Amino acid sequence: MVLYDANHIAGSAMFYFHGDMGSFFHTGDFRFDEYMFHEYKTLYPDIKDQILPGIPKSIHIDELIVDNTYCDPIFQFPKRSKCVKSIINIIEDNLPCDVYISTYNLGKEEILVELSEHFKTKVVVEPERYRDIVCMDFKPENFTINVEEGWIFCKKWKDKTVPIEM
Question: Is the peptide bond before 73 cis (omega within 30 degrees of 0)?
């Protein structure tokens, strides 16, 4: 078994199994990006026989299990970098202000770090989420549980209507 980064939430993975019964690839929730063609040499080895110029032929997979939740063409999600730029622009257009972002239990840490670094402030999170960030070693220096140390606040989606105690 080989795990591949799913480019989704922190720790998310895609699974590749190969054995006597064949080879299987399960994507789970993932966010495709072209870097995967170049980084995952096991899946996309450098073979002279290419499907398209610059994109090598993939290895053989007997069964592919793909999360296709957003596979309909009506879903046109922008690249993460474009989303972050849009968020930064909205914040900059409204400064000075406090910013409140709702997320699930995990996910969006990369965006929060980018906001923290761009605006040179810490992101205020709940103690439980801070412990998760520390355990993942996900730039804990960009986060705090002290509401006096930042003006970007991150709450769990389910707690978004619960006031932040100041």
Answer: no
